Amino acid sequence: MIRNLGKTVFAATYFLLAIPGPGEAPPNHIDLSKFPATQLDDIVVPLPSEVFNVLDKLGTPNWQEQLREPVVRTRGEREQIALLLGSVIAEGFVAVEAADKARVKQIGRDVLELARAIGVESTVLTRTNSIVTKADAGDWIGVRRELDGALTDVKNAMIKLKDAQLAHLVSLGGWLRGTEVLTAVVQKSYSSDGADLLNQPDLLRYFQERLAGMPPRMRNKPLVNRMQKGLDEISPLINQRVTPDSVRRINVITGQMVRAINSRA
Amino acid sequence: MRRFFILLGFWAILRPAQATIDDAITSALFALDQYTKQGYIVRDDQWGGDLGLREQKAIPHTLFRGNDYWFCMATDLENARVAIHLYDSRGKLAESDSWQSGRFAAARILPLATGTFYIIVEVTASPKERTTWAMVYGYK
User: Fold this and answer.
1) In this model, does residue B15 exceed pLDDT 70?
2) Max CA-CA distance within chain A?
3) How far apart are CA A40 and CA A32, in angstroms?
4) CA–CA separation, A130 vs A127, rounded Å?
5) Which of A62, A20, A7 lies closest to B8, judged by CA?
6) What's the CA gap between B79 and A228, in Å, rounded?
7) Dihedral sign from CA coordinates of A175, A180, A182, A186
8) Which of A59, A118, B48, B125 could cysteine-pair with B81, CB 3.0–4.6 Å?
9) Could you give the ipTM of this predicted complex?
């Protein structure tokens, strides 16, 4: 009893002392160039839903028109399967926007097949079952969360399996398909708000560096090489003010890259 | 908000004294919970590690104009204090709101433009040489 009383008193004291406040005022400006490299993390790759969340607010594009039927190959090189897995998960977001139950359910099954092909099936089993169930119920926000979760779980499982390189390819596959869709939507009705979403030069540089840092046995594979060349083409377009013409060019390049991911066996 | 900080007080007392990264993550998620109730979507991922006193860590992140983000940081080490602030790619303070309460801290941003932002985390007081911390975020 004394112990409980003590805790209660301590809780009250804690609350009184720990009144939330702004804390120490942070400096208005910091010199990022002087930040020690050891204290600088890798860039955080945003989730597809962070982009789609903004797209939701920009209008109501014809999402059905953006849907693609990816060719899901579960045999072949692991690099291709990883890229494909990322792009299929991104396709899931388009299917959610289009409220296409059948496509979302098929994508859930495809994600499971691809995850199986690279040895991380058990990681996403619950997620993919949930995608199917939530799609049936029309719980689109729930499906988005499961797709985000599947992407994160797959990447974390690969990192645990010492396959971080493949995890980067999953992220890249998702980013490419997401960027292709984003540019297609922005192209249809150009607005500076829409084009602003493409201002991601550091993220692009991150992917370029990840590909460049891969061991030669991976980096020299034709598909990975193709990805590197595509990113190099996109880079100057993203590193300047994004114009209607650069949106169109990025759409063409990412479209070609996604087709390469889908078509090459 | 007041209820949240009362809960935070109880939470702090009931947690075990020995800090681990899992405990820090749980604490950070606890701090984020109030925003989840306001419709923020929690990213199912965490960042963390350990920092020395007054040591900072920068986490670059592409944030999108049109989204509204809350980043929450916590440690499970009693009597420690942490801070989290958000800067744009030119090093200018970019957060629209922030708070600090013991071993919890949070910062909010509504980016004026899409681009790279830097999440700066810091341990501002601690009874130990190294302090375990974790960061999570939500957006809507």
Assistant:
1) no
2) 73
3) 10
4) 5
5) A20
6) 49
7) positive
8) B125
9) 0.85
3-class DSSP state for residue B10?
Answer: helix
The model's pTM: 0.86
So where are chain A's domains?
Answer: 32-187+198-262
| Whether A86 contacts A177, CB under 8 Å | yes
Give per-10-residue mean pLDDT for chain A (265 aa).
Answer: 44 46 83 82 91 85 85 81 95 94 94 92 92 94 93 90 91 95 90 89 95 95 96 93 93 97 73
In chain A the first and final C-alpha atoms are separated, in Å, by 70
Q: What residues of A are in contact with residue B27 (Cβ under 8 Å)? A: none
The β-bridge partners of A156 are: none
Q: Which of A55, A53, A51, A50 is nearest to A185 (CA)?
A: A55
**Substitution target from A31, A50, A93, A241 for chain B, most B beta carbons within 10 A:** A50
A/B interface, count of CB pairs below 8 Å: 149
Rounded distance, CA A125 to CA B14, Å? 35
What's the rounded Cα separation, in Å, for the pair A30 and B91? 5
